[in-house]
Design brief:
Distance between the termini: 18 Å
Shape: globular
Helix content: 55-70%
Order of helices and strands: HHEHHEEH
Strand content: 5-15%
Number of helices: 5
Radius of gyration: 16 Å
Strand order of the largest sheet: 1-3-2
Number of strands: 3
Largest sheet: 3 strands, antiparallel
């Protein structure tokens, strides 16, 4: 996926509701830990324990970030026994990660 840029002459304005929804999604992931979580979950569903291990963070911090994104519709969760698994609910957020990855490679 490429973050394409178009000349301003052929760009159609985005309606207000779509801009509001985009802003809410961006606010929900606008934190380094949350962006890393999206990057981890891009490869598939993971338990909170697995996410904590990959992040090297405490479960309380990780759970707080996961719940914030779940509340905003970015992530899904499911419980299996005493484990909670998370996955990406809004696949468009993966495109944000791809754009960030692309832009940092160009620097």
């Amino acid at each position: 996926m490429r973050c394409s840029t178009s000349s301003s002459n052929d760009v159609k304005p985005i309606d207000d509701e779509k801009l509001r929804m985009a802003a809410e999604t961006l606010k929900a992931v606008a934190h380094p830990v949350r962006l890393r979580i999206i990057e981890i979950l891009e490869k598939g569903e993971k338990s909170v324990t697995q996410i904590c291990a990959k992040l090297g963070t405490k479960q309380s911090l990780t759970s707080q970030q996961l719940n914030r994104m779940k509340d905003k519709g970015v992530l899904n969760s499911r419980r299996e026994g005493n484990l909670v698994y998370y996955s990406i609910a809004n696949p468009r957020v993966v495109k944000v990660i791809h754009c960030i990855r692309q832009s940092t490679e160009e620097i």
